[in-house]
Q: What sequence folds into this?
């Protein structure tokens, strides 16, 4: 490892510049919508600003004619939480299962790849057709949740491959040698070591579900999730309300991410300490 | 090893020795794996494989304005493939996919490389990575339309150019054009490239790079002969994700091209809304086969499975 005092190569400065430019590119349009979300009551979706106000934030909370943001937000949130929990349970289990070859492992691997790369709307189309044939009414926690799982589960599985690859099997074997039962090994060895990765899977699945549009649109039935309501808003008329939603989402994301980050850093510190104590 | 593992006798391929072997007397290791992988496999079979087979079947059906009727007709496919519009939209989608793939690969690889090899503090690395990820949490739809006030005729970017004196009149090609579509895709999908590549890069043993350096390799040789070959799984996964996202796009082209281009899926959704399920299914099957071929080629070039599942 090069020491900290070592002089940085020119590539460092080139890539740092590229990275900064990328962040600018990423946040540039976002900054514009953050500003425009404080547009005055008579202002529109483009510049110039006509005064400043919180009108559009207030608009979010009022159920409008075209869209009911608060209710659809609740739906999206509860769906995302359930999807994220299910994804963690099934993908972590499957990730552990894939550590050894078993009959059918190849088939399931390619099934997951196919499910991951399948154009989203087609999944919803297929499930929607299926429900129609069976005479079932599509709804939030049946067809829509199913459609989202076909996307979050392969994602979770692939993320778990990355996590599990770094896991040293001999830790589990050591626990077994010390007389730990299968459950104790899972509870006190495997899960704690994999926890940062598991949190990553949970956050990823939550994000994918919360923002999912194309898989959900044909499987949701009559009650929309937030992205579908946003889409309805766009097709009807564009007002800075959409931008206010974006501003709020980003604010909330920052809070959640800061919180998780602190949690992970604390966990790593604690683990560092226990390692030293154990050693 | 205390006991002979059951699965080493049975023709079920290699098993990982160790823990699984030790308990072979109680339960074969592969059965444990089945219990662990089973729920995921069942969900994917029921909610992904079965619906796909369903629209494969429907794609041969007959239909009229009232309903759809079981049949075995190739008309839906013939109609689809003999329409010039189909070919136009595939060519246009493919063009977008290739351009966006090249840009996101360049950006994604360099960003991942910067984060993994140049940022030395792991907390700072995580913060920078999250900074890339945060916009991902805002709805893709909002992130798409966010470009409208930015790129528009009176938008932030044109205003800036005018003020700096870089242009005498606002640029029109920025919005509602192929340019806008590509920009939006890159904005939406670069992270899909950064993630898998960063994961691959982080697994590279630094000693290998030192060794290459000591053996007299130039920076470029180290990159092309050590780093890139070791990152190929991440590159392939990222490419697969970006490519299929662009091919399956529903919203961006419709919103940002100003009606100049269409996407395969938006064409398809028009048919679904008109309840023309059999032609929509045929359309869907053609897209599935097309995506499968491309992904198959990518996976043929790089054996992703060998790298991921040890």
A:
């Amino acid at each position: 490892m090069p020491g900290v005092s070592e002089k940085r190569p020119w590539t460092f400065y080139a890539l740092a510049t590229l990275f900064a430019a990328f962040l600018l590119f990423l946040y540039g349009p976002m900054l514009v919508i953050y500003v425009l979300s404080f547009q005055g009551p008579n202002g529109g979706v483009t510049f110039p600003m006509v005064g400043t106000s919180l009108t559009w934030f207030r608009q979010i909370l009022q159920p409008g004619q075209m869209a009911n943001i608060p209710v659809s937000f609740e739906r999206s949130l509860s769906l995302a939480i359930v999807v994220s929990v299910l994804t963690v349970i099934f993908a972590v289990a499957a990730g552990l299962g894939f550590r050894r070859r078993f009959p059918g492992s190849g088939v399931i691997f390619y099934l997951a790849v196919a499910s991951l790369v399948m154009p989203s709307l087609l999944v919803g189309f297929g499930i929607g057709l299926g429900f129609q044939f069976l005479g079932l009414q599509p709804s939030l926690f049946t067809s829509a949740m199913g459609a989202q799982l076909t996307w979050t589960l392969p994602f979770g599985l692939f993320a778990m491959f990355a996590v599990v690859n770094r896991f040293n099997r001999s830790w589990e074997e050591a626990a077994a040698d010390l007389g730990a039962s299968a459950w104790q090994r899972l509870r006190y060895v495997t899960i704690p070591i994999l926890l940062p990765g598991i949190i990553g899977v949970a956050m990823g699945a939550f994000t994918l579900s919360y923002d999912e549009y194309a898989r959900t649109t044909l499987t949701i039935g009559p009650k929309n999730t937030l992205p579908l309501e946003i889409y309805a808003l766009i097709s009807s008329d564009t007002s800075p309300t959409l931008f206010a939603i974006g501003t709020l989402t980003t604010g909330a994301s920052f809070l959640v991410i800061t919180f998780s980050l602190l949690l992970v850093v604390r966990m790593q510190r604690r683990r560092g300490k226990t390692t030293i104590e154990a050693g | 090893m205390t006991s002979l593992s059951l699965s080493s006798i049975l023709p079920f391929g290699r098993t990982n020795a160790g823990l699984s072997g030790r308990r072979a007397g109680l339960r074969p290791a592969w059965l444990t794996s089945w219990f662990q992988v089973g729920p995921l496999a069942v969900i994917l079979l029921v909610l992904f494989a079965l619906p796909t087979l369903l629209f494969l079947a429907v794609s041969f059906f007959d239909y009229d304005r009232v309903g759809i009727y079981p049949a075995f007709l190739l008309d839906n496919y013939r109609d689809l493939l003999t329409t010039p519009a189909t070919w136009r939209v595939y060519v246009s989608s493919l063009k977008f996919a290739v351009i966006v793939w090249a840009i996101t690969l360049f950006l994604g690889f360099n960003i991942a490389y910067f984060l993994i090899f140049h940022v030395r503090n792991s907390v700072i690395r995580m913060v920078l990575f999250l900074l890339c990820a945060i916009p991902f949490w805002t709805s893709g739809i909002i992130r798409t339309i966010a470009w409208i006030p930015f790129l528009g005729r009176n938008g932030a970017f044109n205003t800036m150019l005018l003020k700096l004196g870089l242009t005498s009149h606002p640029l029109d090609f920025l919005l509602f054009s192929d340019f806008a579509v590509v920009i939006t895709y890159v904005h939406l999908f670069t992270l899909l490239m950064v993630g898998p590549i960063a994961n691959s890069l982080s697994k590279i043993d630094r000693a290998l790079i030192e060794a290459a350096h000591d053996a007299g390799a130039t920076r470029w040789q180290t990159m092309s002969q050590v780093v890139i070959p070791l990152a190929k799984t991440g590159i392939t996964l990222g490419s697969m994700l970006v490519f299929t996202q662009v091919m399956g796009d529903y919203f961006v082209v419709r919103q940002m091209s100003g009606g100049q281009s269409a996407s395969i899926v938006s064409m398809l959704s028009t048919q679904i809304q008109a309840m023309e399920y059999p032609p929509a299914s045929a359309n869907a099957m053609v897209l599935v086969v097309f995506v499968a071929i491309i992904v198959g080629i990518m996976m043929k070039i790089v054996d992703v499975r060998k790298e991921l599942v040890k």
